[in-house]
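Mods, move this if it's the wrong board.
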Amino acid sequence: MELMSAREAAAKWGISQRRVAVLCSENRIANAEMIGNMWLIPMNAKKPIDARSTRYNKNDENSVKPFLKWAGGKGQLIKEIEKYYPFENVKINKYAEPFVGGGAVLFDILSKFDLDEIYISDINAELINTYIIVRDYIDKLIHLLISYQEDYVPLDTDNRKNYIAKRERFNDIKVNGNEADNIEKAALMIFLNKTCFNGLYRVNRKGLFNVPMGAYKNPLICDEKKLRAVSEKLQNVKIVCEDYKKSDDFIDENTFVYFDPPYRPLTETSNFTAYTENLFDDEKQIELANFVERISNKGAMVVVSNSDPKNTNKEDEFFDKIYAIHKIKRVEATRMINCNSDARGRIKELLISNF
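Not the wrong board. Structure tokens:
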């Protein structure tokens, strides 16, 4: 029987060599054998039907959701964003999300598709550290979270003031800690996310987390089942603490990219951008638009989300101008556009694509 290598099969079928190896390991290529450290495949083997676009049932145990609550999370827009998923095109076998935040789109894609490579990043070092610890040290993380839960939940509100001590410890590690403290820092990040006011992550000008305690009767600090499921899904994800521009090295013509940058504020009172010490002003929005054009020229398929300034100023053409060469779709979302609860309601957000 005439045989070919995984590299030769990849060239023949128009997929990556890594993808061929995965298909062999899953026994989806008949009579493929591992000889030494390489796969040998019958020359007459047929390319397996691509299963990456197989949708799982919403109740399927393989489905995972974000493990952190994050301001501006995209859970409510998933139905709109998923319309852009291009993975039925076998060529698109990579995904990049350079402003990962809570990862609603990331986890939706991880639940529904089997891709060759996935890259996520953010400049929030504490957020990225938490992703890495969930991926690489799940047992130690869960052990700490269970101890936090057992110590905190039985206390009455007055005695729960130890929340402040946990917040101070988190800030101390943030400023003075080293690599040895990373598991504790991730556990504290999750603890604070589950117990602080409204699950909000906010830092002051010194970069210190300053959100007060929330009023939760029985917070689930350690959702062990969810965390283990997330850990498993993250195993082959490249996680990077860098500016979005660093993703340029990963992105190519085989990549779908989703950008969810800090939103341009609709009003002065809605100017909440302090997820990190660095603000994302109009100049940086323009830099991002230029970067989108750069990777578009590589052949990447790109979607960008942002606020629609026309919610408050019909004459504001900011995004229409900087993304003039792309397609702009206005979709409905529920957001609070200022501190007044009367301002909560259905508003428009932008989904911008190059295809």
